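Ex. 9. Protein: glucan endo-1,3-beta-D-glucosidase.
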Amino acid sequence: MPATPPSTTDNWWCDMNTEYAFVGFSYEVTACTSVSLALQTEFTDIRQTFNGRYVRLYGACDRAGFYDDVINAAWNAGVGIHALVWFGFDGGNIWQTRRDALFATLQSNPKAKFVTRVVQFGSEPLYDNVLSTGDLTAQILAAKATLSNLDIPVTISELAYGYQVRGGATDVLSAVDLIDAHMLPFFSQQASTASASWPIVLNDMNWFIANGQGKKIYLSQNGWPSVTYQGVQPNSPNAVADVQNEADYYKLLDSQCGYFKTVPGGGVGWFAHIYSDAQEPGYGIYNDVGSLKFPFSPITSC
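Predicted structure tokens for glucan endo-1,3-beta-D-glucosidase:
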């Protein structure tokens, strides 16, 4: 990073055509205090150990100034952020406070537009039915207007199924600047082992390609769990959750680098969900005491 922020974002970001294969990690932030202490170390680890370009935030930390800490850690580590307005699972309107706090920081912090690659307006907001498609579209368009002076794109992070159960949600797809797609084949009714899951992945990919209006695609919440528990349970009796299958899923994605490179819209970049089991049990690349669960050196180009 330069000593001070440039005067413009012109020519700042790499072309999205180069952003295919592995691009980074989802990173859960609900444990505000411990996360704040770890941001710099772990963002730097994502960049230097795994060649990650981005950190995709997941969950919410409502402490005042938290996103400033994220910006500073990202700037120092040399990673970009896929920011998130988190709706949560309990209803209510706290998401509006989170939206306003994030947007205020994006406008006030001079480094914000140089590390914030995109704002995700919700994680599975369609699947969770948090807003009507019309209201969600209106929020996306309002966010794009609010952030237009910063050139920060806006999207939602969503399952193909979330769109499908809303009749395709074409108004939402038309409003978003790019597509952040959730890819969680473990939960398919056809799931068995991770190494056999490519047809499930491809089925959802084909839907996004057919309906995504040629927009760039990232697999934002994307992984295979190593354990099952309440809330992470398969819909197929043949689905296997263990460390080997978690590792095999990412090997499968690596093996399809050539496919991801050539998907219309600039290729497909994928995130690993999630950085550590301490953030979300079973999905971490690291276990809950900070050791790698399996060798992880995903390819970033082919």
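Check your answer against this statement. The chain has ten helices and eight strands.
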